[in-house]
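Customer escalation, tier 2.

The customer says the design service returned an amino acid string that "doesn't look like it belongs to this structure." They asked us to rerun it and document both sides in this ticket. The original structure tokens are below, unchanged.
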């Protein structure tokens, strides 16, 4: 029963839906469609299929190249694993970087900052109360 139902459903796919399709003559591609759909057109033969190129590497070399890439990936993961390296001489590096950056700027006096903040507090206007 299931096979008969599947056969009935698939039988609709057998017909050629494009055989009776019409092309609008006002379409800009109408002339090209008519030329391409002629039954007496020139069709390629098997003799016209070009020969395979000679300058392509053999198929087995593609697999070898893929293996080399996989080996490189595994070596990179092994060499950069979290337990494979440590930081050393970080204090020496940091001291050199501080010397190269130059002297530190003196911090701003605390009174200047407090005075500025107080001035802003005095100038601040609270928002109006909400209307009920």
């Amino acid at each position: 029963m299931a096979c008969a139902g599947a056969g009935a459903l698939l039988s609709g796919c057998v017909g050629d839906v494009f055989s009776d399709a019409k092309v609008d003559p006002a379409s800009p591609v109408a002339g090209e469609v008519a030329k391409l759909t002629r039954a007496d057109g020139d069709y390629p033969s098997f003799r016209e299929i070009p020969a395979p190129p000679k300058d392509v590497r053999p198929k087995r070399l593609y697999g070898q190249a893929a293996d080399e890439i996989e080996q490189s990936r595994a070596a990179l993961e092994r060499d950069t694993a979290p337990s494979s390296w440590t930081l050393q001489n970080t204090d020496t590096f940091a001291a050199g970087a501080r010397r190269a950056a130059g002297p530190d700027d003196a911090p701003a006096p605390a009174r200047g900052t407090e005075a500025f903040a107080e001035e802003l507090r005095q100038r601040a206007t609270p928002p109006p109360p909400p209307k009920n």
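Tier 2 assessment: The sequence is consistent with the input. The chain has a mean pLDDT of 82. Residues 59-79 form the longest helix (21 residues). Sent an explanation to the customer and offered a walkthrough call.
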